[in-house]
Amino acid sequence: MAGKKGVAVALQAEINTEEEWLKLLEREGLVVVDVYSDWCGPCVGMVGNLKKLKLEIGSDYLHLAIAKSDGIEALKRFRNKSEPTWMFIAGGQMVNLMFGANAPRLMRMITQELEKETKVLAGQRERQAIPFSELTQEEKNRMEEIKRKEEAEKEREARELADALEELKIRNLTRFAKLLMDKTVMVYFPHMIDENNTCSAAFKMLAQYDQVTMAVHYQMEVQ
């Protein structure tokens, strides 16, 4: 994303400070901002598409800028992120947000948002703004997806751990069964009884008896 910075500056206003950001918000029309972090750099790969769209539209109401989130309070939640982030601003307020380097989608959103803002300035519709501190629906959806993936991963790890413990338990029971003599009294204490009022550990061990030529001659339940 970084590199050829001179090309980006020629087309887009470069915003690095809070003061420059506040001046940018005063611009009339639609401002499309490429939000980036200092360590990553702006999305230079989109410059050609943006320049082409700017020339095709030829509107004085379309402004392009790149803003370094590191020094701007309103953009602090975008710091240390490597994914391209596009913020749409009109009337000093955020009206939309897009993530990623999908050129066709970005061009389409710019056209749509510019059309909306043109109607707002003509008094034909109300502007629907989103506070800078508020998450957009896309951000909420992305966070929910991340949460779902994390929960699924935790469940998978829990299942793998349970399976590993079960396998270890069976191995231990098998070794124990091989050590038993032909006639042995086995006592299962109350804490070994599960929620189904059975001793699953005992059943699993008894299932190994055939393998070690052992047999259960007598069972007694003690109350």
TrEMBL record:
UniProt-listed CDD domains: TRX_NDPK
Domain Thioredoxin: 16-110
Name assigned to this protein: Thioredoxin domain-containing protein
Stretches assigned to coiled coil: 133-171
InterPro entries in alphabetical order: Thioredoxin-like_sf (IPR036249), Thioredoxin_CS (IPR017937), Thioredoxin_domain (IPR013766), TXND_domain-containing (IPR051766)
Pfam families tied to this protein: Thioredoxin (PF00085)
Keywords in alphabetical order: Coiled coil
UniProt key word Coiled coil: yes
